[in-house]
């Protein structure tokens, strides 16, 4: 066992850090305020190969490992979680799902442009009445011979309006329960597919979250992913990796807030000295640093297991559970270290605090992570 990143890892980490500072930081407050999707920044991230990071270069990806993905997600999320969620969903939920389980034709047609960042994708599992209870899909896809007829509504879909390719989970045979669920590739512009208004959210306000409505959408048979009835397992397997992405996002939000708190504590004076010299502040910074390091280890461990082709469902759930709690605690403390300044937008920490909350909700709430971990430890 060794805890050292390779030269290549360090280079990728630096590239992401530079991008975050130079391209994401300017304008991040304004995008949050006006709920503006970071379209230009996402385009550049695509050009740099960050949207198909782990995809084989023969399908237009960068061929990097999951450790690199954690490093990139942390750096981007320190500054702009609205941009990093696009990177996470495109890499983990969309590209990974297609590369792992798609046919060669599906990969050529859909994965290549997604991995190159020419278009972005969305993963559509949640419904008005099926968030945590993901087997209770109300969206139906009826087998009509050469196509499926898709009807239903999906909620809180990240990249809902800006995506071109949507992986949609739907019930094809209710009598079969989770074995009657399938995953489909749906294109924006297919007749009957409409996008609802953008959600007005507490955090990650720049990200593009929408409901999607499907009314008699004809989805060609060849757009089903995997064997008939594979859709629920497809969603679960894909989310295992997605949780590494969101855990790393939470880690980045926490470490971003921590770095700001350290910097501020050295500059701000009270009672005749920088507040960093007061033990009350040092204790806070020590707790933050310790928890962040533990979260980082869990993220890297989950990524390492994935890279080694070992089971990682439990590790990714642990990383997400822990890192998202650390993100919440750390950002609240970072605001406290900043005092009144922390409560205003210019100092960034209030945004990070609002952004942190979603990491305890999406890609499975903290309660879902505990279910996944509990089942694994009891096996
Ligand atoms: N890998 C492979 N198969 C799996 C699996 C996994 N990780 N997890 C479950 N399965 C299989 C089970 O083995 C079982 O199959 P068999 O009957 O053949 O054995 C089948 O799937 C059903 O499993 P369960 O009985 O465990 O299902 P459950 O109804 O108890 O639910 C759950 C399990 C873990 C709670 C699951 O519903 C879940 O993860 N829910 C949360 C969903 C979620 O994360 N939603 C987030 C939306 S996506 C998002 O947020 C993206 C975004 O935009 C940012």
Automatic annotation (TrEMBL):
PROSITE patterns: ACYL_COA_DH_1, ACYL_COA_DH_2. It comes from the Bacteria. Residues 231-377 form the Acyl-CoA dehydrogenase/oxidase C-terminal domain. Residues 6-118 form the Acyl-CoA dehydrogenase/oxidase N-terminal domain. Its EC number is 1.3.8.10. Belongs to the acyl-CoA dehydrogenase family. Keywords: FAD, Flavoprotein, Oxidoreductase. Pfam families: Acyl-CoA_dh_1, Acyl-CoA_dh_M, Acyl-CoA_dh_N. The keyword Oxidoreductase applies. This is Cyclohex-1-ene-1-carbonyl-CoA dehydrogenase. One of its GO terms (molecular function) is acyl-CoA dehydrogenase activity.
């Amino acid at each position: 066992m060794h805890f050292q990143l390779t030269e290549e890892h360090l280079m990728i980490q630096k590239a992401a850090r530079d991008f975050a500072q130079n391209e994401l930081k300017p304008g991040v407050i304004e995008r949050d305020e006006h709920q503006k999707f970071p379209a230009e920044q996402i385009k550049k991230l695509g050009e740099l190969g960050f949207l198909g990071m782990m995809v084989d270069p023969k399908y237009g990806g960068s061929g990097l490992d999951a450790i690199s993905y954690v490093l990139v997600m942390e750096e981007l999320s320190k500054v702009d979680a609205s941009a990093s969620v696009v990177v996470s969903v495109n890499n983990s939920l969309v590209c990974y799902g297609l590369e792992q389980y798609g046919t060669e034709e599906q990969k050529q047609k859909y994965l290549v442009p997604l991995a190159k960042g020419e278009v972005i994708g969305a993963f559509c599992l949640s419904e008005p009445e099926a968030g945590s209870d993901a087997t209770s899909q109300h969206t139906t896809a009826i087998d009509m011979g050469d196509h499926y007829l898709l009807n239903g509504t999906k909620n809180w879909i990240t990249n809902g309006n800006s995506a071109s390719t949507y992986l949609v989970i739907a019930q094809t045979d209710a009598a079969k329960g989770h074995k009657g669920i399938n995953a489909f590739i749906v294109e924006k512009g297919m007749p009957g597919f409409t996008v609802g208004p953008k959600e007005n959210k507490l955090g990650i306000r720049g990200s593009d979250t929408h409901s999607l409505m499907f009314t008699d959408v004809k989805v060609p048979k060849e757009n089903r992913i995997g064997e008939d009835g594979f859709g629920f397992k497809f969603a679960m397997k894909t989310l295992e990796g997605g949780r590494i992405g969101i855990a790393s996002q939470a880690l980045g939000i926490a470490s971003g807030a921590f770095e700001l708190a350290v910097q501020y504590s050295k500059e701000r004076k009270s009672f005749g000295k920088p507040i960093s010299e007061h033990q009350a502040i040092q204790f806070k910074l020590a707790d933050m640093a310790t928890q962040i390091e533990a979260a980082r280890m869990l993220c890297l461990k989950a990524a390492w297991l994935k890279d080694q082709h070992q089971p990682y469902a439990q590790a990714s759930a642990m990383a997400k559970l822990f890192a998202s709690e650390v993100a919440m605690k750390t950002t609240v403390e970072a605001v406290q270290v900043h005092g009144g300044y922390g409560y205003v937008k210019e100092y960034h920490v209030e945004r990070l605090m609002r952004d942190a909350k979603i990491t305890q909700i999406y890609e499975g709430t903290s309660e879902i992570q505990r279910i996944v971990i509990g089942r694994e430890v009891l096996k």
